[in-house]
């Protein structure tokens, strides 16, 4: 019987790419998101061979309902992000920084906690942090603080919840809808700048991160670790 992977944030970007990758490797996949239309579109893009669940990961009541609905799972992937909290430290909006934690840290924490009643004891949970947690990039203190909170949680939970494996992937700059807050012309310019700074000469694609997530799910000797998958961007910062 195929192992069941539940991907929260699976309707676009890294989550959608991870669903596609895992389906190709024989896993059964359920994807979740807040928008029913985007979930339906993602299901179609995946040839209608995934289950979908609509819920808001920041709502604890909705969260409990969703996990009771999906039943037993072997692995949980939390492809949750927030673009709130970026900007120069002297002027960054404190409300945005708080919102960044509410959109990123709390849903990761809450989903992992609620999942404990559904997940296989020796299964896995994979979080998504980001390169700002590990790299001194001016203008990202708010983002970095939230992402570092995710990374800091990983080894603690790996030790506390063993034999359940807890890991994370920390992406660099990846071409996903996360960047949709920028006008298209600005996004092209930003990506070109980061590509020039990155040793591999390009920004990441969702499939790059999906490969790392699939590795953490399948490798039963990996726990308590955050894999930095940034094309070497951190080397130039």
Briefly, what is this?
With 237 residues, the protein is α/β, with parallel strands linked by helices.
> What's the CATH class, please?
Alpha Beta
Q: Helix/strand-derived class?
A: alpha/beta
How many distinct helices? 7
Q: Which oligomeric state applies?
A: single chain
Point out poorly predicted stretches.
Answer: none
Please state the CA-atom Rg, rounded to the nearest Å: 17 Å
Shape: globular
Helix share of residues? 40-55%
The CA-CA distance between the termini, in Å, is: 45 Å
**What share of the residues does DSSP label as strand, in percent?**
15-25%
The number of distinct β-strands equals: 7
What would CATH call the architecture? Answer: 3-Layer(aba) Sandwich
GO molecular function, one term: oxidoreductase activity
InterPro entries: NAD(P)-bd_dom_sf (IPR036291), SDR_DHRS6-like (IPR051122), SDR_fam (IPR002347)
Keywords: Oxidoreductase
Family: Belongs to the short-chain dehydrogenases/reductases (SDR) family.
């Amino acid at each position: 019987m195929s192992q069941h992977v539940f991907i929260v944030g699976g309707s676009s970007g890294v989550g959608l790419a991870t669903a596609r990758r895992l389906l190709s490797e024989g896993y059964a996949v359920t994807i979740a998101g807040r928008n029913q239309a985007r979930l339906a579109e993602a299901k179609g893009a995946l040839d209608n061979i995934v289950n979908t669940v609509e819920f808001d990961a920041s709502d604890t009541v909705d969260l409990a309902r969703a996990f009771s609905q999906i039943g037993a799972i072997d692995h949980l992937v939390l492809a949750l992000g927030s673009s709130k909290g970026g900007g120069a430290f002297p002027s960054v909006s404190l409300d945005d920084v708080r919102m960044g934690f509410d959109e990123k840290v709390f849903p990761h924490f809450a989903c992992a906690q609620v999942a404990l009643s559904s997940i296989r004891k020796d299964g896995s949970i994979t979080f998504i942090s980001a390169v700002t947690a590990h790299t001194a990039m001016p203008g990202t203190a708010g983002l970095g603080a939230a992402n570092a909170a995710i990374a800091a949680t990983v080894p603690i939970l790996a030790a506390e919840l063993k034999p359940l494996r807890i890991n994370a992937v920390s992406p660099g700059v990846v071409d996903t809808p996360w960047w949709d807050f920028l006008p298209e012309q600005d996004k092209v310019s930003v990506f070109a700048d980061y590509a020039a700074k990155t040793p591999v000469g390009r920004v990441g694609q969702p499939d790059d991160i999906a490969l790392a997530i699939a590795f953490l799910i399948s490798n039963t000797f990996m726990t308590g670790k955050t894999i930095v998958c940034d094309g070497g961007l951190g080397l130039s910062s």
